[in-house]
Amino acid sequence: MCHNSIALEKLKSAYCVIPAHNPAITNSKMTAPLFSNLFIAAVVLTTLAKLWLARRHLAHIAAHRAEVPAAFREKIELAAHQKAADYTSAKTRHGMLAALLDTLLLFAFTLGGGIQLLSDLWLHSFSGAIVQGIALIASVLLLSSLLETPLELYKTFVIEARFGFNTMTLKLYLMDGLKSLLLGALFGLPLLFGVLWLMERMGENWWLYVWAVWIGFMLLLQFIYPAFIAPLFNKFAPLQDEALKTRIENLLKKCGFTASGLFVMDGSRRSTHGNAYFTGFGKTKRIVFFDTLLARLAPSEIEAVLAHELGHFKHRHVFKRIAFSFVLSLGFLWLLSRLMHADWFYAGLGVTTHSTAVALLLFFMVLPVASFLLHPLMSFYSRKHEFEADSYAAQQTAAADLVSALVKMYQDNAATLTPDPLYSAFYDSHPPALVRISHLQTA
Q1: Is 309 an active-site residue?
Q2: CATH homologous superfamily for 235-316+378-442?
Q3: Is 74 marked active-site?
Q4: For the residues 207-233, what does the mean pLDDT come to?
Q5: One of 160, 200, 301, 309 is an active-site residue; which one?
Q6: Set 120, 390, 401, 420: catalytic member
Q7: What is the pLDDT of residues 345-390, one digit of tens each?
Q8: In this structure, are residues 63 and 379 in contact, taking their beta carbons and an 8 Å threshold?
């Protein structure tokens, strides 16, 4: 039964498309007040944990700011070390503000009545349940993005600029935002329409159909991103340095890797940070170097960095992560299929309107809170892959070259050499600098 005292009966019947309740869920001991209290407690504790971890991180960095770690004293000056400490601290404080804003928005949209208000608005504006659902989800995402924009602007044009990293203009920032919005509409709206349609029409096993569509969509993006999406934001030119190109091609041949090309990206257009990455699948695979990276590293160091990336390919890390994300998404969709029949799930989050769109929106707004404790496991899994890729690079090139390249990248990107161990365990996908360099030197 759908409860919405504002809508006309015919609009209620059009919007309330949740099938019959699942006895296993509706007969559980969970109640709306209990679930609401659990939700509040989980959000508050998660936010406090984030702030506590951040304060630990700030204190640990400050305690080691005055001295460069012994392993790096011959390669990194004190001024560079202190710049990294200050830059990391500034980003951490920004992250604390972002965490507080996320919590306020979550409470405002759920228990504060934001989702219900928007749901009532679109209920009277459109007649179709799917169109109403798309409008609801799109409006929540758009409002969230707009409210988070001031913090993003501050990060880009104040923090990044203060430490000499930002090269982006406000015009380029706005153009990037507009392109992202249009791409989101172009790809996201049809996907959302298909998901909501499947949730309504495919019965209790809708989650299997949605999962299949999601897999197809993500694989499609992997194929089209290098050639069609990335060029909308950056310019990609073939690598012109013939000596470096020959060196890289020999390494690729040695490692049994084929790519559609070697490209240089104009990363300096937005930032002085440097990087390199693989993108695409099959014939669309390409290797991309930031122009800032090529300007800083020696050819042997570039080769070592590329060997590290090839290590990810050789150990099939990308495929493993994609497969893991697909399995995880299947579990999440199954869980959503159970929760969407439970009255306490909606009422406990401050919503009276029951629909597939509301259920989908609520679930994925709550999910980051429920999965917070998985962060250390995901970080451990990622760092394991980084160690494996480093070991592979040490087998294909000189480990000393990769060490030298990493030290330069730490320095150029102002990455702190002294993160708090617990904070790093929660959030860092790469091993701390000291641990990583020690591992390579042993190799």
Answers
A1: yes
A2: Metalloproteases ("zincins"), catalytic domain (3.30.2010.10)
A3: no
A4: 92
A5: 309
A6: 390
A7: 999 999 998 999 999 999 999 999 999 999 999 999 999 999 999 9
A8: no
